[in-house]
Specification:
- The termini are far apart.
- Helices cover 43% and strands 15% of the residues.
- The chain is globular.
- With 195 residues, it is of the alpha/beta class.
- Strand 5, helix 4 and strand 6 form a beta-alpha-beta unit.
């Protein structure tokens, strides 16, 4: 069953990546982009014969987070939950000690712009390591914040929301179910500060 999930998640990610570049309705035969319906039908055909019947898709549980200006939801047997936060949500979270904001941009980006106010900085490639391997004491000493539990509300931010969306999915796989993505990230923060 996990191979079926991986196929569907891969299809979803390919579709989301290609959405800003080409409309699937304007499919050209000389294009390298595969038509959406064709790929989806193939995935269902492959997975329905070997893994699970097509009518039993309610048991699937996967993320459909998108990185290009659309909603990010986690779906599990019909349940949906909004995982995107916006500028007004960040303003509230900055004054809430129960919320941990993590800026996942690289150090060079932080040196150039500074980190998101009220956040701690953990580069994208180090987030899992920090959550899994740092003790509560080491986390507190390094970031001057309490180490998040699986229930702590965590908001992730990057430059535009794409990398933080990827880390959101990674954290969900680690068991953190109260994680949100700041859509627009630093670019949105900066543009709202100029207004």
């Amino acid at each position: 069953m996990s191979s079926a999930r991986e196929l569907i998640m891969t299809y979803s990610k390919i579709r989301q990546f290609c959405r800003p570049f080409v409309s699937f309705r304007s499919f050209r035969y000389d294009s390298y982009i595969i038509q959406k319906n064709f790929l989806y039908d193939k995935l269902l055909k492959i997975t329905s014969h070997t893994v699970f019947p097509v009518h039993d898709r309610s048991t699937l549980c996967f993320s459909t987070s998108t990185y290009f200006k659309s909603d990010s939801n986690t779906m599990c047997e019909g349940d949906t939950k909004e995982l995107n936060v916006y500028y007004k949500d960040i303003l509230k979270a900055q004054n809430d000690d129960d919320v941990l904001i993590i800026d996942v941009r690289e150090q060079s980006e932080i040196d150039e712009t500074g980190k998101l106010p009220g956040s701690i900085h953990i580069p994208m490639g180090d987030v899992s390591n920090a959550l899994l391997n740092l003790s509560e004491k080491d986390f507190k000493e390094r970031f001057n914040k309490e180490k998040p539990t699986k229930d702590t509300r965590v908001i992730l931010s990057c430059r535009s929301g794409k990398r933080s969306g990827m880390i959101l999915e990674e954290m969900q796989r680690l068991g953190y179910h109260n994680v949100y993505n700041y859509v627009g990230g630093w670019l949105d923060w900066e543009s709202n500060q100029k207004v």
